[in-house]
Amino acid sequence: MTDDFFRSRLDQMIDPRHPLAVLAQRLHWERIEARLAPQFAHQARPLQQTEEAPDLLGAVVSVSGGKVSNAGRPRLCMRLMVALSLLKNSFDLSDEELVQRFAENVYWQYFAGYDYFEPRPPCDATQIGRFRTALGEAGLEELLRSTIHTAVDVGAVKKSEFERVIVDTTVQEKAIAHPVDSRLLEVARCKVVSAAKAAGIVLKQTFAAEGRALRRQAAGYAHAKQFKRLRKAVKRQRTVLGILIREVARKQSVIKGSANAVAALRMWLERAERIRTQQRHDRNKLYALHAPEAECIGKGKARKPYEFGVKVSVAVTHKQGLMVGARSFPGNPWDGHTLAEQIEQSTILLEDIGVKPIPLHTCP
Q1: In the chain, beta strands by DSSP E
Q2: Residue 223 to residues 211, 228, 229, 328: CA-CA distances in angstroms?
Q3: Considering the entire predicted model, what is its pTM?
Q4: Which residues, in sequence order, are CB contacts of 125 under 8 Å at separation 6+?
């Protein structure tokens, strides 16, 4: 029977033996939502006191924050967002492709808890990225723990298989463009200007037209292998960025923006200064302003000698290949130095099922 006379329920349209249909019934959705709920609860805003210009009655102090606010758009269903995250990683899709295919696939909608087919996208693609950011490392570990428990419950993996795991390290590439000095300098100039405006700082000159022209000139000189002219254009870009950084630093005492704007301004100033002063042979260079953790890691491949990202250690079972742990390690450490922390994380994720990975040998 159906509650809607004009539509059929999804459970009547699909094959109940489909892997996603079986997984939708086996996953402990209530436990997942209960453990993730504290991370998405409304937090109390810090108490802020702002003294306004005095009037005839004297100085006026306005107070804001200090309590939990329920203002804003309600959050989407927790099960829907968790299901979208699992589907994205399972099928290796971008956020845009994920929401488009979700509106066409009845099995995906049944997995997300829908009762009836919905031909519209479940949410905007940008909301999936914000959900991952709010989820954090602890939330991702909770999702991984749930998949391990489900695999044991359905009998896909035996508990004895978790006693021996294979640990491998690789490079997780970041979504950044190839780091070029002229492009990094132009991006840093734009970030400093926008952050200064958000903080209420009025700049004498933003060098917007000159910055775009220098970026085009540098690209043309690099393509034509005119390196002397290229160095001259890049030098001018460094000079322009330095002028803006010094002007913003002088005017920081008269900032009228919010605390978040001030913190963002200081962050962009620090990163812009690193971009301006770093040289070709320096260590710990900044390769992307939005991803300061990215490193240049040599892979020894003829087609791609370097990759820009962070080193990631992954632990999987030796038979089924089920992931039982994954961690990122900034700073490009040696592979052997990541083994102890990876085994520790795998032990924590497997403690609920009463299994502890046994290392076959200890790295020096």
Answers
A1: 48-55, 58-64, 165-173, 295-298, 306-317, 323-329
A2: 19, 13, 12, 36
A3: 0.73
A4: 94, 95, 96, 98, 99
